[in-house]
């Protein structure tokens, strides 16, 4: 076992994780962080979003609404909804082939067994010659022994879950809060070292986590980059809609969660 330090490591992580694992873990880490900007009511954990009705309350705290149970439920609930939306797009709208399948068309065309409308820029790419020297085949190498999944490629399911999970957590917690004592993996992935660099915030780190989960599947050779980008945007949209519907069902007065979207827009739900 190693800490994640390369794209290959990312591919290995998103091969074995359950759907929303990274974001459930992130949620638990956020609730366990030491610092707080909430002077009125210090608590063990990252501060809630500024519009949380219990932030600063000295006599009550949230639980099944606006608290720990609510946040963990939202991560799972938004992830499931994002996957349903993703599978609709995969099967009923786009039905895009996987890179592995397209690699088969490239191999057939390059070897002269068949001719497919593959772009000349790809057919002349030095990457193909490199792959052929290694494997005596033009097929795209796959990171997983069974190859790619058998359902369509676009958009990516991991990316949709990542978009939903990150959006929920950015809404629930104060995105501007600094990350306590960040660390980085050593070059060999066997140890951790203190991070030295610009301050890291919860919002930026959640964005980074979402992209890493999405791009990890690309690094296995089973998705296109556009699959990851579209999946992140789809998951974000699903999570925002879910929280908008939920907001009208609270007993507590709630001014609305604030979220910085992946494209940098600040929205109030």
General description of the model:
The protein is elongated. The strands form 2 sheets. Strands 1-2 form a two-stranded antiparallel ribbon. The protein has a two-stranded antiparallel ribbon with strand order 3-4. The protein has 9 helices and 4 strands. By secondary structure, the protein is mainly alpha-helical.
Could you outline the blueprint of secondary structure elements for this entry?
Blueprint: H1 7-16, H2 21-32, H3 68-94, H4 99-111, H5 120-123, H6 126-135, H7 157-172, E1 183-185, E2 192-194, H8 202-219, H9 225-247, E3 258-260, E4 266-268
Antiparallel strand pairs: 1-2, 3-4
Quickly count the helices.
9
Report the C-alpha radius of gyration, rounded. Answer: 21 Å
Going across the major beta sheet, what is the strand order? 1-2
Class of secondary structure makeup: mainly alpha
Pattern of helices and strands: HHHHHHHEEHHEE
N-C termini distance:
41 Å
Shape: elongated
Which whole number gives the mean pLDDT? Answer: 92
**Which band does the percent of strand residues land in?**
under 5%
Q: What is the tally of beta strands?
A: 4
Described by its quaternary structure, the protein is single chain
Main β-sheet: number of strands, strand sense, barrel status?
A: 2 strands, antiparallel
Kindly state the percentage of residues in helix.
Answer: 40-55%
Taking pLDDT < 50 over at least 5 consecutive residues as the criterion, the unreliable ranges are none
Summed up:
With 269 residues, this protein is mainly alpha-helical.
